[in-house]
Amino acid sequence: MADKENYALHLTPFAASQRAVAFTSDAHPHPAKKMRVELVDLPFLSNADPLLIPNPPTPPLHRPNLQRRSREEQNSVLAPAVTSDSSEPGSGNNAPYDSDIHRYLRSKEVVAKNRPVANYMATVQKDINANMRAVLVDWLVEVAEEYKLLSDTVYLSVSYIDRFLSFNAVTRQNLQLLGVTSMFIASKYEEVDQPTVNEFCDITDNTYTKEQVLKMERDMLNCFKFELGNPTISTFLWIFSQAGQEDEKYPPLKLQFLSCYIAELSLLDYGCLRFLPSLVASSVVFVSRYTIDAKRHPWSKKLIECTGYNGVDLKDCIHALLDLQLKNKAPDLTAIRDKYNQHRFKCVSSLVPSADVPAIYFEEPNE
């Protein structure tokens, strides 16, 4: 039974091999399905990066049970919303309140109780590591895609995971339970028609019971003191990406889809927790503009004014995002890359930027 200890990465939504059956229930056998790729078999490029360190033995992440959705429904997953509102701050329906809303969000993101502890893997967790977290996040993105959940739900789910792990040690056996419970809570907060608790149990092939999910929900809500509305990268990305289109020199759809792609990639990197969500969102817009047109200065005075960050403030985060985009980190986690390699997202995950950002781009632009 040593194989039960392997940490399996299921790359196909419908896949659950016979080995996964042993982890669910011997009393409820499942029909044979497609083979999975074992995480321990995947190639890793380096042992220097925590996202590239092979995991210790860990139970499998069971792929979602998608039978509740028809094929037509599964193929109608909506792209991120793109509006035709002017990118000029103050031009939308909330124009009189834009600056006040932005100031409020910036004040909320720095509140300690709304932020995870950047080094919790070293100080709190004993049985999990950054690579396991990355696998879980990649799986949750795939679940959200298949169940047509909003991107905001994914960002909030990951935020809840990191906030909870900052103060509560979790075993590797319960890491997936924490993931689905986080998405269950985030769905209640963001979705109009959220999946039920039983459906979230189905997502894990009934590895966890309804009672376990509800108990974890109670533990998380008590940990958060029911304060669930913390700002995320997505909160700022919409504001900043609109400002990034002010000069009309970048294709708006491509810029928006590329920004969404790089922002979701950032969720994989535990190291990005040291950056404020607004700084990550600003760096995403920088990298997106640089990827589309590397010959043009990707930062502008308008973006400095909107975001409050100069290029040099973003330098470390920009290099972290480029490492993810160029697959120097988490190269074998494919859910986000596959998602944005579809034509409805203009295949933006196939765009490859130069890793060497000119030093002048970190200086203040002339215009």
Describe the structure in your own words.
With 367 residues, the chain is mostly helical. It folds into 2 domains: 2-72 and 114-224, Cyclin A, domain 1, CATH 1.10.472.10; 95-109 and 231-362, Orthogonal Bundle (Cyclin A, domain 1), CATH 1.10.472.10. Helices cover 44% and strands 1% of the residues. A two-stranded antiparallel sheet has the order 1-2. The N and C termini lie far apart (64 Å). Mean pLDDT is 79; it is low at 1-48 and 66-91.
CATH fold category name of the largest domain: Cyclin A, domain 1
Mean pLDDT: 79
Number of helices, where a helix is a run of at least 4 consecutive DSSP H or I residues? 15
Uncertain segments: 1-48, 66-91
Secondary structure class reads: mainly alpha
| Outline type | globular
Helix % is 40-55%
Largest sheet: spatial strand order: 1-2
CA-CA gap between termini: 64 Å
Q: Write the H/E string, N to C.
A: EHEHHHHHHHHHHHHHH
Characteristic terms for this protein:
Cyclin A, domain 1; two-stranded antiparallel sheet; mainly alpha; 2 strands; disordered N terminus; 44% helix; globular; 367 residues; 2 domains
